[in-house]
Amino acid sequence: MRAAVLVLVLLTAPFGAPAFAAGATGFGLAGQQPDAQPPKPVDEFVPVSQLPPQDQLPAAPLLVSAYAFVWLALFGYVVSLGRRLSKVQGEVERLESDIAKGTRA
Amino acid sequence: MPKWFMPLAAINALMFAASPFLIANADYEATMGLVQKIFYYHLPSAWIFLISAIVCGIASARYLFRGSPRHDRLAYAAAELTVLFGAIVLVTGPLWARKAWGVWWQWDVRLTASLMGWMVAWAYLLVRRYGGPGSDKLAAGLALFGMANVPFVYVSVNYWRTIHPPTTVVPTLPVDMGAALWFAVACFLLLFFLLLRLRVHLEEQRARLDSLYLSLDE
Question: Nearest Cβ partner of B212 from A49, A78, A99?
C-alpha cells in the first residue's frame, strides 16, 4: 500500500511540482516585508497630532534630504545669477567707459 | 534694478526662514507621517514649475507672432526657472515617494508628464545655447509644446486614477496644514517673481552689452 502511494506521488510529481513550488514561494514571501509594493492611493490627508514611533527615524533622512536639496538648489541658483549679472554689468561699465574715452579722444 | 526689489527680497528671505516653523507645527498626516512634510515645499515648487512653463509659452507665442525682444527675454528667463523648479519637484517627489509608496519612481501619468515638461524646458535652454542663429524662434516653438503639456500634467491625476494624490487633496486640508501650505505657496510665488525679474534684468544687460559692442564696431 505504501509503495503504491509512493509510486502515485512520484508519477504525479511533475504536475504537482509547480503548485508545490508556488505554495512554498508564497510561504517564503509571507515572512518578508513587501516593500516594493506601493500602497493604495489616498484621496485626502488625515491629520494626527502624534507620530507613531516606528515612523520617525526612517523618514527623517528623506525629509532632511528633500529640504536640503531645495535650499541648496535655490541658493546655488541665486549665487549663479548674481555672478552672471555682476560679470555682464562689469563688462557693460568697461565698454561704456571705453566708448566715452573714444568719444573724448 | 527697481527700488522695490531689495525690500521684497528681504521680506521673501524672512518668509522662507519662518516657513519651517509653520511646517513643523502642522499636524502629521495619518498614513504617511513625517515624510509627508516634504509636501509643503514639493507642491508650491510644482505649481511654480507649471506657472513658469505657462509664462515661457505665452511669452514665446507673443515673440513668435509679434517679434518683440522683450517677450523673448521673458521666455528665456521663465524657461530657466522651469528647469530650476522642475528639478526641485523631480527630486523632492521621489524622496517622498520612497517612504510613502515604497518606490523612488513610478511611470505614473503625472510623473511621466512632469518629466517630459522638464525635458522640454531643458531642450529650450539647449537650443538657445547651442542652436546658433535663429535658435530663438525654434526654442519659442518648443516652449509652446511645454505649455501645452501643463494642463495635461495638472488634470492627469483626476482622469487617470494613479498612485499620486489627486488635486482634491488641497481643498480638504485642515487649517494648520493648509496655513503651512499656503504660506509656502506665497514664499515660492514671491521668490519666482523676484527671480524672474532678476533673470530678465540679466537678459536686458546682455542685450545692452550687444548693442554696445555693435556701436563700438561702428
Answer: A99
> Is the CB of residue A42 less than 8 Å from the CB of residue B165?
yes
Residue B106, chain A, CB below 8 Å: the answer is: yes
Interface contact A45-B88, CB threshold 8 A: no
CB B50 within 8 A of CB B38: no
pTM of the full structure: 0.80
Q: A74 in contact with B at a CB cutoff of 8 Å?
A: yes
Q: Which residue has the cell 503504491?
A: A4
Residues of B in contact with A58 (CB under 8 A): 99
Closest Cβ opposite residue A66 in set B26, B38, B208: B38
* Per-residue tens of pLDDT for chain B, all 218 residues: 889 999 999 999 999 999 999 999 999 998 888 899 999 999 999 999 999 999 999 999 999 999 899 999 999 999 999 999 999 999 999 999 988 888 899 998 999 999 999 999 999 999 999 998 889 999 999 999 999 999 999 988 888 878 888 888 888 899 989 999 999 999 999 999 999 999 999 999 999 999 988 887 77
> Is B148 at the interface with chain A, CB within 8 A?
no
First-to-final CA distance of chain B: 29
- Cell numbers linked to A57: 527615524
| Helix/strand/coil (H/E/C) assignment for every residue in chain A | CHHHHHHHHHHHHHHHHHHHHHHHHHHHHHCCCCCCCCCCCCCCCCEECCCCHHHHHHHHHHHHHHHHHHHHHHHHHHHHHHHHHHHHHHHHHHHHHHHHHHHHC
ipTM confidence score: 0.93
**Eight-class DSSP state of B70:** H
Residue A100 touches partner B, C-beta closer than 8 Å:
no
- Contact criterion met (CB < 8 Å) for A88 and B101: no
Bridge partners (DSSP) listed for residue A47: B29
